[in-house]
């Protein structure tokens, strides 16, 4: 229930953003008897997940894959009776290394990645013995300013292996790895008990049956979501919070949960200003700035996977669906500025580099990096963020709390992390953890 007093709409809690973090928090708070309004700038719920009809079928334009090593999303899927669908098992693999294209089996490609990657992440459990409590080992402060390229240079591997390893992590970061944090890579792998192959399986193998839209609709059912409300200011100076939209609407609440990603926070004025570590994190941002593009190619193509150069417009592609006698691929590139994913004339040569003899017929994508409501794809942190800025986003600022995959302790960059952080924010409010 909400009241309107002098045109200021009131609720116990205002949540900024109706993605998985926001709607999870909203559900928990509503079930505890609090009134909640969720303000969403888009014309839909879901945030950086978006199941949309493209290329003749429903496609995940944003976040997609889940895994049973991800406890929060797995519990939600069980709660709402949602299963998984496996991506096609590839039969062939292509990869670029040492100045040449190579072809073989998927196991051969994994073997090429395995030895150097094991060396890279061998200390994941040492530094992150409790992956959902990433600050357990204080020694992370020693390595949080180490970049992936710096660590890779210390491995003393061949140029061939370096090509593969750099592209593999450019894929995972969905961006250039120049200032990608080693701690981010170690955190990811620690979440699968130090086994990078299981982590990679979690990244691109199992999808939500019925799509992300089915799960987010279940979580969000019953929540008062106001679409088309872009928040411009959050004022907590008076004890209670006033949230203002770009259209001048005002919402008053005892608590605010802001689920905007780092890339979108710069457009919001916070009063009082956020602490310096949080402001630093916002100004520096995170590492992802890539693209995800769906591609229809001519004919029925046997399932395959390809890993290209980290310097290419697209550096990863795999076959996903058969559609009307053709094949739909999903591809990723580390820099949205290198490719217009809506232009077949640009996508065709990018695919030619990865896999021979494919004829691109159609494409579909969304530029999350240029989208002011996201400013990034999935969050992958730069050097220094974990130990300098993360804690500031996990602490209350008066009535204001943050939640979202960008700030999760566990599976940051995944749906699981968004749900985890939404639960944490709701628990913080219900347990009185605001100051």
Automatic annotation (TrEMBL):
Which Gene3D superfamilies does the annotation name? 3.90.660.10, FAD/NAD(P)-binding domain
> Which residues belong to any copy of the Amine oxidase domain?
20-430
For this UniProt record, give its keywords in alphabetical order, as a comma-separated list.
Oxidoreductase
Per the UniProt entry, the Enzyme Commission number(s) are: 1.-.-.-
The top EC class is oxidoreductase
Q: Which Pfam families match?
A: Amino_oxidase (PF01593)
Instruction: Tell me the leader sequence span.
Output: none
GO terms for molecular function, please? oxidoreductase activity
What family is it from?
Answer: Belongs to the flavin monoamine oxidase family.
Q: What is this protein called?
A: NAD(P)/FAD-dependent oxidoreductase
Which organism does this sequence originate in? Arthrobacter sp. K5
């Amino acid at each position: 229930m909400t009241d309107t007093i002098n045109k200021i709409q009131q609720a116990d809690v205002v949540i900024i953003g109706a993605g998985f973090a926001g709607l999870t928090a909203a559900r928990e708070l509503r079930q505890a008897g609090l009134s909640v309004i969720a303000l969403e700038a888009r014309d839909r719920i879901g945030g950086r997940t978006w199941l949309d009809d493209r290329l003749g079928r429903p496609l995940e334009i944003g976040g997609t894959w889940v895994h049973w090593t991800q406890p929060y999303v797995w519990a939600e899927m069980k709660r709402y009776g949602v299963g998984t669908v496996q991506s096609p098992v590839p039969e062939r693999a292509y990869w670029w290394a040492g100045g040449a294209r190579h072809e073989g089996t998927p196991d051969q490609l994994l073997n090429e990645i395995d030895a150097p990657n094991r060396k890279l992440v061998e200390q994941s459990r040492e530094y992150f013995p409790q992956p959902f409590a990433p600050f357990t080992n204080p020694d992370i402060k020693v390595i949080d300013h180490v970049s992936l390229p710096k660590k890779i240079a210390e491995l003393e591997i061949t140029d061939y292996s370096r090509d593969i390893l750099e592209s593999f992590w450019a894929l995972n970061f969905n961006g250039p790895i120049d200032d990608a944090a080693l701690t981010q890579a170690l955190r990811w792998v620690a979440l699968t008990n130090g086994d990078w192959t299981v982590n990679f399986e979690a990244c691109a193998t199992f999808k939500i049956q019925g799509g992300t839209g089915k799960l987010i609709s279940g979580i969000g059912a019953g929540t008062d979501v106001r679409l088309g409300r872009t928040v411009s200011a959050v004022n907590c100076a008076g004890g209670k919070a006033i949230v203002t939209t770009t259209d001048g609407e005002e919402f008053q609440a005892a608590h605010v949960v802001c689920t905007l990603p780092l890339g979108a926070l710069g457009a919001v004025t916070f009063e009082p200003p956020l602490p310096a570590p949080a402001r630093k994190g916002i100004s520096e941002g995170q590492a992802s700035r890539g693209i995800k593009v769906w591609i229809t190619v001519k004919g029925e193509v046997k399932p395959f996977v390809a890993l290209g150069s980290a310097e290419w417009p697209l550096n990863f592609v795999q076959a996903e669906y058969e559609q009307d006698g053709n094949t739909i691929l999903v591809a990723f590139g580390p820099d949205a500025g290198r490719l217009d994913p809506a232009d077949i004339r640009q996508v065709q040569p990018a695919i030619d580099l990865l896999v021979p003899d494919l004829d691109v017929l159609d494409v579909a994508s969304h530029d999350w990096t240029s989208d002011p409501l996201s400013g990034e794809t999935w969050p992958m942190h730069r050097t220094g963020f974990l130990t300098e800025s993360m804690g500031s986003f996990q602490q209350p600022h008066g009535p204001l709390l943050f939640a979202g995959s960008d700030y999760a302790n566990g599976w940051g960059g995944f749906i699981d992390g968004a749900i985890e952080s939404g639960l944490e924010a709701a628990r913080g409010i219900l347990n009185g953890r605001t100051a």
